Amino acid sequence: MTSTAPTRARTPPRKLSRLTFARWLAIGLALLWSLAALVLVAARWIDPPTTAVHMQRRFEAWTHHRPYHERYKFIPLGQISPDLQHAVIAAEDARFYQHHGFDWNQVQIAAEEDWEGRRVRGASTITQQLVKNLLFGTSRSFLRKGAEFTLVPVAEFALGKRRILELYLNVIEWGPGIYGAESACRYYDGIAARAIGRQQAAQLAAILPAPLKRRPERMINYSTIILARMRQMGW
Length: 235
Hints:
The chain is mostly helical. It has a single domain, classed as Biosynthetic peptidoglycan transglycosylase-like (Penicillin binding protein transpeptidase fold), CATH 1.10.3810.10. It is about 60% helix and about 5% strand. It has 9 helices and 3 strands; from the N terminus they run H-H-E-H-H-H-H-E-E-H-H-H. The protein has a 3-stranded mixed sheet, with helices on one face. The relative contact order is 0.15.
């Protein structure tokens, strides 16, 4: 009587191909995340020559056959008026120096406003906005949000608050083709960022939530609110 060796169950080819695809996808995502983290670490010492938002705007202008002129000059934080620094923090992220990348108080407020249908401002911190501007552009997706969530702690740890603020003020979009405090101050007010006054700084900060639609001279009401916040914060 002959005995037959037990046959091993074979993985169906379709299931095997799905497993292989999932494995390579995970490896690819891990490599992309590592590259993004490396960019953030390098930004501690290297001023970024461009950002994802800059490239996105150039591509949009090219695809829509629109003229595009980019104004972008990176300057040290010490050459940016303290009034402008304070106005941007008061407008965009009042607890910038207290949190570690995420302002959970603002997240809760935003969630409650969303639930009640009266959302008036976002909950993104300056660190979150910097990561988005440098790496992802203005697109919105759960994948981008997830990647941003994991990279914000890297930025906080590798860069520190002073460098985060310096990078943010230099790369943020301040109008069509206008990036950074120096370019914005010279374009709208005809003066260097170090010389910008308190009222002008508040009006410039007021356009940041919608820089392609707003103009500083039209932001009198909102700039008054920003000035009041600055006084409350001791500035």
